[in-house]
């Protein structure tokens, strides 16, 4: 998956106010409550700091336990240290030497203020024990707070569900940017609802939902493969239902394009009635299509790092 080096917001915002003699000046716009991506450089700085903290506390070497304890003290609040102790209890109590290396694959700010941030992140994890190495990915929602120049993690939610985010009030300037960001996030949630629900009893309706939220190359792919997709939905007998409250965070907005990191859980039932839960960290590439709002031009599964 493509790694995002920075964040760019290019929005053409028209409008001005003119002071007329004898009239009161309009009140200045108050900043939006959620500053994520309003100042892309500041958001990138927060994500970089949280990335360092995350990689430090989610990596462990049993031969260097004092260094790990120091990293916990520096990067976690006491409450978060208790949470991580539960997550790492098996690792720290292993009778064999063990080394866990964690790297952030991708992250995005769900919410951000001057001194707090909530970050959705997908982690690459490589564990070595008794000469054997295993790899995997994990997703977490991290609530962080700034203390001086450091951002400390205060809450850790693994396999997180999303929570409603307060809508920004209408306005110009930064508020307008925030509302575009929020509309992209809401658009991603609508796309996920359409693409991740599959009903073999209604293949035509399932496929129609695919087309309704797609544009560009993704729409072309659906249309080219329509017959095969319908047959797969109908004959495969696999039903997929999106679990409530997927977590979503906008990674970037460029003109009328947006990239949104989404973590979703789906309840999958195969043709034999066997039920399983699947966890899907994905990136949706969205285009804003006039009155139709945001549609998906691409969908990418987040993969482990090489």
How would you portray this structure in words?
This protein has 306 residues and is α+β, with helices and mostly antiparallel strands. The chain folds into 2 domains: 40-158, VirB8 protein (Nuclear Transport Factor 2, Chain: A); 174-301, VirB8 protein (Nuclear Transport Factor 2, Chain: A). It has 8 helices and 10 strands. The protein has helices at 40-57, 65-75, 78-87, 89-92, 174-195, 203-212, 216-224, 226-236, and strands at residues 60-61, 98-112, 116-129, 132-147, 150-158, 239-242, 247-254, 257-269, 275-288, 294-301. The protein has a 5-stranded antiparallel sheet with strand order 1-2-3-4-5, sandwiched between helices. Strands 6, 7, 8, 9 and 10 form a 5-stranded antiparallel sheet that branches. Strand 7 (247-254) and strand 8 (257-269) form a beta hairpin. Helix 6 packs across helix 8. The radius of gyration is 22 Å and the shape is flat.
